[in-house]
Write a structure and sequence with these properties.
Number of strands: 25
Helix content: 10-25%
Structural class: alpha+beta
Number of domains: 3
Oligomer: single chain
Number of helices: 8
Strand order of the largest sheet: 4-3-8-11-12-1-13
Length: 397
C-alpha cells in the first residue's frame, strides 16, 4: 500500500452465519448495550489481517491499531500509517490461535477489553455492531470469570461452567436476528474478554467439557444463579411467577457469614406510607406506625399490610434493593427500616454459598444437586431434546 490517503468501497459480502449447536465457533455481540460510534482496534498479541476475498488489504501487527468509525451506512477504517478506506463491513482475522485484540470504544469513551478470536464490524442504525468470533472454551472461560469472579476454587468453577454452558445451549439463538448468538451483557451472560487471572477457570471449563444440567431426562434447566441468598434461596414463582419444580427454596448456611449476607435501608415513615398508598394499600389512621412491621425470617412472596399486599419482587425493583428478602421494622423516630439478607434474585445457585461449599470439600455435582432439585449432569451429545439429538459446539481446548 502506498502511504497516502485512499478510499475503497467494497460491496457488502455475505457472512455465513448459522445458529446451531453444531457450529465450531460462537458469535458474541460486544458492547451491545451501548451505541458505539467509533472503536479503536489494537492487536495485543499476534497479527490480524483485513481481507477482501483472498486479498489482504492491510495487516495489523502486534501493537498496531485501527480506528473504525460509523460513516452513514458504512464504516470508515483508518490506519494511522496509510490513511482511510470505506467499507460496508470489516472482519479482522488472525491465523494464530493465541492472538488477542484490544477493543476500546472511543466514542462514547469506555474502558478497553481484551479478546481472543476474530472480530467483525458492521454498520447498524446509529451504531457500530461489533461481533467477537470466538471458540467455546475461550468464551466460557471468560463468562465464568465475569459471572463468578477469579478468586474461587476449581470445584466451584466447574459448577459455574456447567450452568453457563447450559444457559448457552438453551439460548444460543437469542440474538439470531442480529447476526450473532448472544450479547456480552447480563441480558445474556456477562462477557468481558480474556480471563488471565485464574488458570483454574479454564481447567474447570475443559474438565466439564460438553456437560450440561438437565431435568426429566431431556429438559435443559433454567440455569439460574445469584450472588448471595442470605441463608435461603427462594421458589421460582416468588420472583418469576412460574412454578419450576427444580427451583425450590433451599436453606443455605454456607453464605450467611459472608459479605452481602445482610444489608439495611432506612426510609422516612411518611415516604413509605406514600409509596404504599400509591400501590393500593388501604392505610389506617394511627399515631403509631407499628402496623407496618413485617417479619420475613423465612422467604415469602408478599409484604402484607392490614390485609393488603405488595409483591416483595416489586418493592425490590421500585426501591432498587439488593434483594427481596427483607423484614420491615419501625424505630422510635418513625423511620421504616428494611432489614435485608442476600444479594440478587435468590433463585437457583447461591454463588457465595457454592464457593464455600467447594472450600469445604464438596464437588461440583454436590453443589449443583444442593441448589437444584432432581436434576442431573450429562454430556450434551447424549441428549435428545424435542426429538433432536444435540451435539455441543466443538471446543477449542
Amino acid at each position: 500500500m502506498r502511504k497516502n490517503f485512499y478510499i475503497i468501497f467494497l460491496s457488502t459480502f455475505t457472512l455465513l452465519f448459522s445458529i446451531s449447536v453444531n457450529c465450531q465457533q460462537l458469535r458474541i455481540g460486544l458492547f451491545n448495550e451501548s451505541a458505539i460510534q467509533t472503536f479503536i482496534f489494537t492487536a495485543s498479541e499476534g497479527t490480524y489481517e483485513l481481507k477482501q476475498d483472498s486479498t489482504v488489504l492491510l495487516k495489523v501487527e502486534k501493537g498496531g491499531l485501527l480506528y473504525i468509525s460509523l460513516l452513514d451506512s458504512a464504516l470508515s477504517v483508518r490506519d494511522p500509517r496509510y490513511g482511510s478506506m470505506v467499507l460496508s463491513s470489516v472482519i479482522l482475522k488472525s491465523s494464530d490461535s493465541a492472538a488477542t485484540f484490544l477493543l476500546r470504544p472511543a466514542y462514547p469513551a469506555m474502558d478497553a477489553r481484551n479478546y481472543m478470536g476474530d472480530c467483525l464490524f458492521s454498520a447498524g442504525i446509529g451504531r457500530i455492531q461489533a461481533v467477537n468470533i470466538v471458540g467455546l472454551t475461550d468464551y466460557l472461560s471468560a463468562v465464568v470469570a465475569a459471572e463468578g469472579g477469579t478468586s474461587a476454587t476449581i470445584e466451584y468453577y466447574k459448577a459455574q461452567a456447567v450452568l453457563c454452558r447450559t444457559y448457552l445451549i438453551a439460548h444460543e439463538d437469542r440474538h439470531s436476528t442480529d447476526g450473532f448468538n448472544l450479547c456480552d451483557a447480563v441480558h445474556c451472560q456477562a462477557y468481558h474478554g480474556v480471563n488471565t487471572r485464574n488458570a483454574a477457570i479454564r481447567k474447570a471449563v475443559i474438565s466439564t467439557e460438553n456437560e450440561v444440567a438437565i431435568y426429566s431426562d431431556s429438559l435443559l434447566i433454567t440455569a439460574a444463579y445469584h450472588a448471595n441468598c442470605g441463608g435461603e434461596t427462594q421458589n421460582s414463582e416468588n420472583e418469576w411467577l412460574q412454578i419450576v419444580p427444580y427451583l425450590r427454596s433451599v436453606k443455605d448456611s454456607f453464605c450467611i457469614n459472608s459479605k452481602n449476607a445482610k444489608w439495611e435501608m432506612k426510609i422516612p415513615g411518611a415516604k413509605w406510607l406514600v409509596y404504599l398508598k400509591k400501590n393500593g394499600v388501604h392505610l389506617m389512621d394511627s399515631s403509631s406506625l407499628d402496623f407496618l412491621r413485617f417479619d420475613q425470617s423465612k422467604r415469602k412472596a408478599y409484604y402484607i399490610v392490614i390485609g393488603d399486599s405488595i409483591a416483595f419482587r416489586k418493592i425490590r425493583a421500585d426501591w432498587n434493593l439488593k434483594s427481596s428478602f427483607f423484614s420491615v421494622k419501625v424505630d422510635s423516630s418513625a423511620t421504616v427500616i428494611l432489614k435485608g439478607k442476600g444479594y440478587g434474585h435468590g433463585i437457583g445457585m447461591c454463588q457465595v454459598g457454592a464457593m464455600n461449599m467447594a472450600l469445604k470439600g464438596y464437588n461440583y455435582i454436590d453443589i449443583l444437586n444442593f441448589y437444584f432439585r432432581g436434576i442431573c449432569v450429562k454430556k450434551a451429545e447424549e441428549l435428545n431434546i424435542n426429538g433432536k439429538k444435540i451435539r455441543l459446539f466443538t471446543t477449542n481446548s
